Structures are given as C-alpha cells and as structure tokens.
Amino acid sequence: MNRLIRRYIFFSLALSLACFSCGSNDDDDDATTTAQSGDCIVTNVVLGSLKCVRHTTSSTGEDSTYTVGVTGANFPMYIDQINQEIYNADSLPVGTDLSKVTFSTFAHSGKSIVIRNAETDVDITFSTTDSTDFTSPRLVTVNSKSGTMKRTYTVKLNVHKEAADSFRWQRTAVNADIASLTDQRLILKDGVLYDFGTSGSHAVLLTSRANDGANWTKSDIPTAGLNVKSVQLFNGKFYSIAGTQVVTSEDGINWTPNGSTQPLSALVANGTQSLFGIYNGSMLSSADGINWSTEGLDEVQPLPETNICGLRLTSRTYDSVEDILVGGMADGNASLWRKTVDLTGTYSYPWNYFPITAEIKYPYLALSHASLMEYDQAAMLVGLETDGTLSNFYLSRDRGRTWKDEGYAKPDVGTPTSLVATADNDSFIWLLCGGSGEVWKGRLNRLGWDSESKVFRTKGLQ
C-alpha cells in the first residue's frame, strides 16, 4: 500500500471518528443515527474584514487615533476537532475590534448552527455574515441533519496585547564593578552572561545568569596581559591572547597557554570550524588555535585595527554554509569584511571587502565600543557615537551589504565610558555600560510572543 493511499485512509478514519463523536441532543440512550445524518462538524472557518484602531502622535505632540482595515483571511483559523476549539494561532494586530466580527466562511456539515447568547445563556441562530461580539470566547453549536446530534465548539479570537515591532527595555542592575570597566567583551555561554573587562590595569570577569541580570559575580583574572576584547567562544572553550600567546579557558577565570608563541595581534571572530585573527595586515585562521594559515582577501584594503567586532551568521537556507563578519575602523574609517564558509570543505572563498563610498546609501558605521550580534534573523550593530551617546540599532538583512536603522527604541543610558552588547537565546538584547554600571535588557515584542499550537489540528482550507 503506497503512502498516498495510507494517508487518505487515515484522514477518512479521522473524519469518521469526528462525525460519530457528535453528542446526543437528549438523554435518550436509544436515540441513534447514521454517520451521515449525525454529521455535525465545522469544516472550514475564515474571518471576514475587521477594523483596527491605531494610535499616533501629531506634530504638536497630541495623541489621536485612526482606523484601518484588517484582512481576516490573513489570520487562518485552526479547528481542533479533538478538543472542540476554533482559534487563530497567529494573533490579530493590537487594537483589532472584536466587538463586530464577521466571517466570510463558516462551513459545517450539519443542518443548522447556533451561538450561545453571552447574556441570557440561550442558543440563538448564528448568522456568520452579521457582526458578532467575540471580545470573549463564544460557544457555537452545529446541529446534525437528523436533529438528534450536536457538537459544540469554543470559538476564541486572539489579539496581541502589544505592538509587534515595539521595543521594551528594563534596567536590571546598577553595578559598581561594571561601572569600573574601560573595555568589555560580553559572551553568552550555557545560559550565563560572561562580561570580560579591564578594571584599572588588570582583567576581571563578571558573570550572571541570563534569566537574572540583577546579580553579578566578580572574579579577578590572574593571567597577566589578557586581551579582553579578543575573547572568543570556540568549541565550548574561551580563547584569547595574552602577550604573544593564544590562551584558553574553561571557566573564563583560569587561562593556560595554547601551544607556543603565536603571531597574532587580535582574535576577531569564531566560526563553527575555525578561529580568526589578525596580524600585520593579514587575516589568519586556525582549527585548533595552534596552527594558523593566512586567509585570502579579494582586495588590497586595510583590515580593521580598532573597535573590532566579529559575528558568525547562520544561513537561513543551507546548514552547510555560514558567513563571518569582521568590522571595525581602519585609518580612521569604517571597515567591514565578510567571508562565506562552506562547512563541507568543497569550496573555499576569500574574504570580501565592502567598500564604503558616497554611492552606498546604508554603509557599515564607524562606532566606538561596537558590538555585532545576530538578532531577528539579521546582523545587528550597536555602539557609541562620537559624542559618547548610544547609537541606533542598525540591522543588516543582506549579510553585511547595507545597515539600516529600523526604528528600535533605545534605553536612556546617558554617555557610558564603555559599552558592550549581546543577544541571548530568549531574544533579549543586553547592554552593559561602563561608567554608570547600568545593565539593560530589551526585546522586540513579537520575538517574545508564544504561539498557539498548530500541530495535530485541522486547518480550515481557504
């Protein structure tokens, strides 16, 4: 029996079970009906046009509202025949008016359909094309063609409580140890935030669980000359540079030499299979932090020298491909390079330079204390402007070619003396501010929303 036939038989059996599961209209145990006449299920639901009230602020600062239309068909209704529930898994926009809801389709296999009156608790005829109040869940019942069976569904319409693309920030701590840091590097490892920093003339580490952020533990790093800006997480261990040696650490506190003397001025990025560093105008790579090879460059252009930050960008299309971005400043100007890595080893690509000219409308920016992170399926850049204030959050959705401000709200951090940022596994962005010691976390609202289940549900066809 081929797969198509098996799937057809399985669907037919499931539909038959739903039909026979319709309950009796009375307590008469002798009341029986055939599957055809007892068929009383909802088969397809599509929302009609809805209204949504939005808020805006005029040029004079006055609040006002306006109404826009919402195409209900863009928010599919899911029919859970097992639990007898009907709902939209993708919530409607904030401000959608649920007091006047219509349906373009509310198909069923019964004779009639009624809805429970919210005030009298009495079933009344349900006209799906008339406006109906769904500000709270409603009970809708399908009566079978025989008149002896019925099936009742709870119909619930979900609406977002907050705007999808707004940003909400929370200050979680003001920490004196973070305030003392002049250079910082923030890394997430196993649910813990590791803030490597320079305090005075020595390196320190501050840690806090990502689900906390209020309580930070300080540890002095005994390794002399540790380059905190070079710390990279690679193959589950921390790597950095101390003097002329690459050093490694399991806990971020105790560091040991990794091989002999290495000719590196900075570790700048990590990929799945390689570490990347810079020395004397060349880009180097290593699979173990000991043996280093010179990388190819597609242009003779200076590599970043200061405010260096790197990022591994996962591919949205292929598991075997990733991009490495390394940005910073060279000769006082912004500098950005990208390498595409074929993890299968079939192809090898050089580093590509992104020229920054007047013709480029949204180039990589020259920011101090810059951080790169992956956020909302894009590369995100943030740092400090020349006046010491927090920059906008710039996103590149084309793997580094353009960097656009998408209007994310910023917290009021003043003018930090140093800044570092990263994103955690719950889509929170963390900002740690030297000078003030403030710790902030924020998230794009829609990245924190829970989704209704779409598994093992019968989705209405449109």
Automatic annotation (TrEMBL):
PROSITE patterns: PROKAR_LIPOPROTEIN. Residues 47-157, 164-451 form the DUF6242 domain. InterPro entries: DUF6242_C (IPR058667), DUF6242_N (IPR046209). Keywords: Signal. Residues 1-26 form the signal peptide. This is Exo-alpha-sialidase. It comes from Pseudoprevotella muciniphila.
